[in-house]
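seq:
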Amino acid sequence: MYSAKNKPIMKNKILLSVFIFSLIPTLLFALPNRTEAKGHLAFSDSTGTKNLNVRISLIDSLRGTNYKNSSVYYDNSAIFKLSVMGELSQSFRFESHNELISDYTNRFINSNHFNPSDGIPYTKESDNSKGWNRFRASLEYDLPFTTILAGYDYLQWGVAKRNPVILRGSNHIYRPWMDTTSFIFEPAPTPYFGYQFEFGRLSYTQYATKLYHKKNTGKYLNAHRLQINLPFDIELGASEMIIYGTTTEFDQTNPNPDADSTSRHFEWVYAIPFIPYLFAEPLLGDLDNNALAFDIRVNTLKNYEFYGELFFDDLANPLSMFDDSWWGNKWAASIGFTAKDFCTTSSICFSFNTEYTRVEPWVYTHHKGAGYTYSNYGSSLGSDLGPNSQELYTRLDAEWNFLQLTLEASAVDQDTAFGGNLYDIHTPLSDTDKSFLEEESTIQYVELKSSLLVSPTDFFWTRIGYSFYFGDYKGSRLEGTIGLTW
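struct:
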């Protein structure tokens, strides 16, 4: 952890990082998450049925950002990772991943009050430094008829590469509006228990989880998913999610008649398998935020993949999704295409992905307030674009030996008007229609990005990148990371 008295040491460390990154060609830029080696410390009993793998990583990253009408600033993060993975028997598997993170910046850092609505909590150590941590753990236990699932982890359902609209899990993308020192926009894991049934090509998975928005108040997500793997390498999925909790707004501040600030507790009926929430919710008083989603992935043609996700948020009739006369017709979709593993005679392999995402106004919000909003620790459980937004994204990867070059381009529109923010509350006095991307209130920008990953061994990697922004956000962002794993 950093403190004010360690600022000279920190500055020397940053200068060393800059020097290291300057040795790498700077016309190539930052990449998505690198998956480190499984671990060089392994333990096993004499029978080989009990195994333990330990992995330790040290990571240092430096980011420099320059937007129009703002000063140039930098952010430096030092990360210590400890991962433990293993099995106690062929039926009992577990994982634990822990990270200690220390950030330093030349900007002022506000104090954090550890309220979940303010994002992942952190400890302010000085005006320019903070420390925080994250962890996740999971276990699986196979029974003759099912697999028991439990842990504190990210939940991800769907097939989208860039913008999952159903459950995005740990998927995190930097957006210019996330550029602040007072809020950590990264998604947070959640405690859960669940089970999975396999019926040949058909599988059924169910989770019951605890979400967080306000201290000492209950907020819950129940979710189940049916997936079938068809011939010709086609995968179909249908998911249903329901969110409910204690209304977090003060009494009399929400004019909706059913926003009564009553205390909600875990509803066990939602944890019973094979019962549609659409049937169960009316029996509990029709109180909760129900969502339905479908996804498809087609890999029939070798090296090609077509995929799509469709998310209905509390939509009574899916056939009315294109009717803009009612604000409650809320839906989101991501569709994409991938071509991968095209290799030349010189062993250079190329992959390509393009994806379009559209999120209608009011999606992920709820008229009863934050206790029913599709969010955890202040961030959307679905697409990080938020309601009333769209993105067109394209990516090209080239790999050769231990080098990977990535070129990316994205065009983003995000409406900031009422109905375009995660915690907006529609009231009886609000307009009953909706309008997608009003010109006067919509933020538009284009990002061009290039990145290079260098990983000559399983235990060492480095990456560096640069992004250019055009439109309502004008500027650039330089970032680099170096890591060691053993």
